[in-house]
Model the fold of this input.
Amino acid sequence: MRTKPISVFCYCILFVFVLSSSYLFADVDTLKRIAEGESDVAYIGLRLKTSSTSSGSRTVEEVVIHRNSEDSYRKFVSIIGAPKALTEENDSDKKESDRERDRDTRNRRGREFRWQPHRSQFSIKEIELIAQNYELELRHWGENIAGHQTDLLIIKPKHANRSTKHIYFARKNGVILRVEDLDAAGILRNMFVYNRISFEQNAVEIKWKDLQKDINPQPWHNLPIITLAEAGKILKRKPIQPTYLPPGFQLAGLYKLQIRNNRPVRLKYTDGLLDFSIYETTDAVRSENTNRPSNRGDRNREIPVVTIGDISVRKYRRGPDNGFGWKSDGVNFFITGPIPHSELQKVVESIIIKKDKK
Amino acid sequence: MKHRRIQKHLSAYLDSELAPVLRKKVEEHLNTCEECAGMLEDFKVNRQQIAELVHPAPSMKHVVLAKIRAAEASSRSTFLDIFRRWVFRPFTVGATAFSTLCFIFAFFYFSSTPAPQYDELVDFYFGVHTEEVANNPLKSNVATPLSTPATDTEEVEDGTDALLDVYFSD
Done:
């Protein structure tokens, strides 16, 4: 019996397809497995974490203990390097800026060297949105990280001005061992990698018992999720939603916040990987006409203002996040997120124009 | 003997405490006996003198204490009287209720938390976002390319040169 060439070709295609199927269908299931691993697998480890902003780079060593989704804490054990400002400063400004930075660093370090909750919020909806707005590529990388064989999931954006993420996870249980965040220009901005990690349940339990007094676990309070009607009751008017959203973004939820006696409502939008939020409040805010940024060394610089319609809108940047703030018809609006000002401004314009039309 | 028995009853006779039969016998004897009648007169005189005796003057201590007690009693009654009159006046009741309400309102107004500063609110908004992303390895916050801090122009600069200058200038 002779084998026809066309059959050989078909078998070859089928073979290649089977081999590559894991790459082609590396989608929601891989992400779900990673999310489950991060939530359910107990581990304790030491990781190196580095981040770059326009203020400079910062690298820290962090210890993480994850017993279950409730008992999960992290703590800095050392900080390497200090951020450097990119803006030019004269001598007096520099001294003042240095003093403020030192004070801020001391305060922050006091907090960071204590145990802090380390609870990830993985929602199926957001995972599905990642699969929808990003290309997922699974590579059986096979390299060891902290002694564990890993696979690599690359999350690449389908839309412009979005970040790329590389997730290296333990092949046997899906726990993330290394993450790299690249900005829209392809520059590595955030990264963490575990130097040592143990998945032994007993080791985690013993360490948890030792550390429990030091950690002093507190009950975890999620931000209270509310409905549109409840948000309306808080604001005493219907929350205003934008008519324009950057491609792929959806409303993820509404949340009730509280700062002193002010109760802002947060509308969170996400494309799965990136989030931006619109905050609305009708409660009293003091000295809202200030035009000085409160941010550390930026006190001598005035906040840029753009005019949209007949409303002055203040423009902010804090680390990797951009923001706009304005007041209209007794409502204080603020929008913030790690997406470019140009995109955020379109969202702001859609809110202001919508209000004007009303 | 008869004199002595009669004289024993003279004091009771003066006080009209004798039985009628005995009283009659005493009277019959007094009419006939000068000695016993004289004794009865002496009794009467003595009693009158005792009754007319002047009481001794009270001591200074007693006088002062008595005055203090009297003053206390008079002032107590005065205060109670005034209080009763004051409390049950309609105007007083209204004024008391109004001032109590003012006190409660002032307490809540001054003890309530003040509204946040605008800058504080901005810090809070940025903080909520940063905290959430920092804990979630499936989130990202680095879409915007690295550049110099925000200016009023929207052009995104390539920050590479500025960044390298900072690190190599020393």
